[in-house]
Design a protein that fits this description.
single chain, about 260 residues, Rossmann fold, seven-stranded mixed sheet, 13 helices, 7 strands, about 45% helix, about 15% strand
Length: about 260
Amino acid sequence: MANKICFINQKGGVGKTTTTMQTAAYLTKNGKRVLMVDMDPQGNLTSYVGVSTEDRNTVAELLLGEAGFEETVQSTPYGDIVPSDEVLGFKEMIITGKVGRELLLSKALKAAAEQYDYVLVDCPPAINTFVYNVFLFVDNVVIVSEPGVFSAQGSGKLIETVRETTGAYDRKINVAGVLFTKNNNTKLADTVKASAEALFERHGVKAFRTSIGTFPAPIGESQMACQSLFDYAPKSKVTQQYAAAIEEILEAVKQ
């Protein structure tokens, strides 16, 4: 049975896509069968893994039933991917108008997901029909957040939304934890991070012990090269941090 995990925050630029990519790379290097699903109309994960959507089906066609899984999926060095691009945004109103719109992703991937050990979903920075589809498909949620007060408050509301959505469909979902990124390890950052952790604790969710620092160079360069950090900068500090954080995520998913 596949472990289905999404990486989410309604705020953009916090590192969801980077985290999804590194997790896929880490798992494939350890012999796991991985499927990535890009649910963001920006298609950043699709670009990061070096996949083109020109004249190809994307997650938009999959959701609308215009193409099947085998007609949509593409192979990458980091596992397979159901890609995305701006077409998903253009077709949002059509998808939103479909009967059973929140279950389109689950129905489209129900059989295909069982071919994999892990299915990793990169979410858009929003709470919309696409995200509700993700909540009703995955079993585990990882919130990616900056160690800031406003980001933490938004993440607290997000936890409530996850539970309300899945509860309405009588299914449980594991909020595996919160991964802090862009942590500059200053006294102020440590204070804010502690406040954020206390807020998450009130929701019954823990922050992972490992946080990701601010390393724009290796991350940006790896994105340009369409390579994971494990390939592009295997000895860098940020790569080591991601390895430790991913181990924590996988442990939380097992539990």
